[in-house]
């Protein structure tokens, strides 16, 4: 963990505990990234096995959430972290929460793949799905990389990406609704695509939250609910 | 705060800080409850003014989130809370997070009211909306009451309610999709109702999370991702 204060602790045990929390967070992040990838593939290929795998992985993600939350609580109780260490624990804890919710959204997407598989495949709306799905997977990856490298510039890029994804999502929903009106026989399938799009859009929001946690960790500033320009100012100070 | 350990602190200042956090949490909860009520009314009455009021209130909710998070972080840094005090701080922090997300969902509902108002009112799907909306508002209220009174039985009831709401939500969505297929002219409006239903269902999930925070606070047990029967066993121990 470069540029980070954990090396200066007198207690080697404390260092080890912080490093363990960081390691577990990154491991959880890796599983969640995989979940998004598999969920997206299950949609595009209408592959039920992959969908079931995504849902199964969510159990693992939930266990990691409980485990890491327990670890960070113990660190708070025993070590009384202050300054950067405290911000680190708080950021880990918030990020774990976002990762768990991303896992939930990936499961919901997998559930939609299963529903879609029931009435045969059709490419309607899938171009947008694939595009937005890949984009938010990259955002999650980028936000976790930013966390690992304490890179606020990379974190800020994720915030910018999220703005774009929100716009693309709105366009995709509008297109889908228009198609539904043109051909009402596709309504059931279109609703499944709609829920999947929504889940991907939510994943993008969680990646944005993780990026904000990175900024809080590094700069000590809570930038939630602030406009991008204001956040940029904070970063350049 | 009856049955709670804050009375035993040697530092009157520490007591005052915990009490302040509790007070602010409840104040935030009150605003969010009101937000749900107004958002629901804005939908039913297709009242744009109320919708705009809901969205405006969200700014207040966001400010409270940042404020309370800052307070709890300061308590962690200065007071090194342990045992129940630490669980109290963690529960407040998690509950604040859920309340903020409820506020977001209320805003999304208000946004749908504004969309619905554009093409004139229609009662389609509103019976379910009103029913589910009122139910989740009660759940949020009950979860906050359970927090204030440290009442795990009341918290458990919220978990049970959430199961019921999820079932009702699924039925409502199916009904709505059937109606869309029968009369495709209603698609745009039905999609707005669908998003509103989803938002209410999510609010129910957050009420459930708050109830789980209460159980964690009082019993020291993390019951997330556990089945209701298992949670009931934990409470009877």
Plain-language structure description:
- The structure is a homodimer of 237-residue chains.
- With 237 residues, chain A is an all-alpha fold.
- The first copy, chain A, has a single domain, classed as Phosphate transport system protein phou homolog 2, domain 2 (Methane Monooxygenase Hydroxylase, Chain G, domain 1).
- Chain A is built from seven helices and no strands.
- In chain A, α1 (12-44) runs antiparallel to α2, α2 packs antiparallel against α3 (83-118) and α3 packs antiparallel against α6 (187-219).
- The first copy, chain A, starts with 11 loop residues before the first helix and ends with a helix.
- At the A-B interface, α2, α3, α5 and α6 of A face α2, α3, α5 and α6 of B.
- Chains A, B: This is Phosphate-specific transport system accessory protein PhoU.
Largest sheet of chain A: none
Say which CATH homologous superfamily of chain A is assigned: Phosphate transport system protein phou homolog 2, domain 2
Number of helix segments of chain A?
Answer: 7
Helix/strand-derived category of chain A reads mainly alpha
CATH topology of chain A: Methane Monooxygenase Hydroxylase, Chain G, domain 1
CATH hierarchy class name of chain A: Mainly Alpha
How much strand of chain A? under 5%
Oligomer: homodimer
The residue-averaged pLDDT of chain A reads: 93
Number of DSSP strand runs of chain A:
0
Distance between the termini of chain A: 23 Å
Uncertain residue segments of chain A: none
State the shape of chain A.
Answer: flat
Radius of gyration of chain A: 19 Å
């Amino acid at each position: 963990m470069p540029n980070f204060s954990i090396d200066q602790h007198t207690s080697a045990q404390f260092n080890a505990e912080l490093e363990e929390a960081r390691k577990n967070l990154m491991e959880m992040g890796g599983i969640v990234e995989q979940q998004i990838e598999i969920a997206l593939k299950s949609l595009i290929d209408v592959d039920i096995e992959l969908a079931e795998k995504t849902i199964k992985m969510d159990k693992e993600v939930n266990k990691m959430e409980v485990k890491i939350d327990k670890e960070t609580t113990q660190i708070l109780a025993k070590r009384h972290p202050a300054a950067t260490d405290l911000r680190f624990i708080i950021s880990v804890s918030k990020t774990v929460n976002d990762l768990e919710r991303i896992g939930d959204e990936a499961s919901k997407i997998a559930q939609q793949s299963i529903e879609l598989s029931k009435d045969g495949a059709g490419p309607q709306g899938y171009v947008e799905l694939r595009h937005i799905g890949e984009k938010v997977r990259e955002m999650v990856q980028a936000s976790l990389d930013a966390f690992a490298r304490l890179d606020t510039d990379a974190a800020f890029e994720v915030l910018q990406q999220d703005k774009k994804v929100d716009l693309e999502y709105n366009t995709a929903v509008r297109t889908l609704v228009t198609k539904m009106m043109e051909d009402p026989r596709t309504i059931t399938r279109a609703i499944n695509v709609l829920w999947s799009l929504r889940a991907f859009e939510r994943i993008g929001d969680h990646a944005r939250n993780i990026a904000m946690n990175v900024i809080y960790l590094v700069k000590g500033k809570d930038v939630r609910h602030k406009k991008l320009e204001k956040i940029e100012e904070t970063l350049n100070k």
